[in-house]
């Protein structure tokens, strides 16, 4: 599955649905972002049930500000509309796969209870 480009206009629609959304906050000038991109794309091909999305922080500064993105690349994982992971840094393939498995394994009822929602 190809990645989805997120903008201020479509972010909430994509991120607040059911299932898992992985968001890569990146910029064209960012070397680590360019190194992480193929890892992210390869994972998108392997996991057709997950929405893989990208936010160009240069084109969408309001999204960077909204989520407090201070360093790129930053990977954010959203499950069933809840942000369950956000960490800067270009993750190696094995680490990205581990994050995906951990997000898949979450008990979302427990997560919501802990968040008080």
UniProtKB/TrEMBL annotation:
Q: Which InterPro entries match?
A: Thioredoxin, Thioredoxin-like_sf, Thioredoxin_CS, Thioredoxin_domain
Per its UniProt record, what SUPFAM superfamilies does this chain match? Thioredoxin-like
Keywords attached to this Swiss-Prot or TrEMBL record, sorted alphabetically, are:
Disulfide bond, Electron transport, Redox-active center, Transport
**Domain Thioredoxin residue range list:** 1-105
Residues annotated as transmembrane? none
Family statement drawn from the similarity comment of this UniProt entry: Belongs to the thioredoxin family.
* Protein's name according to its UniProt entry: Thioredoxin
Species whose genome carries this gene: Actinomadura fulvescens
**Which gene name belongs to this protein?**
trxA_5
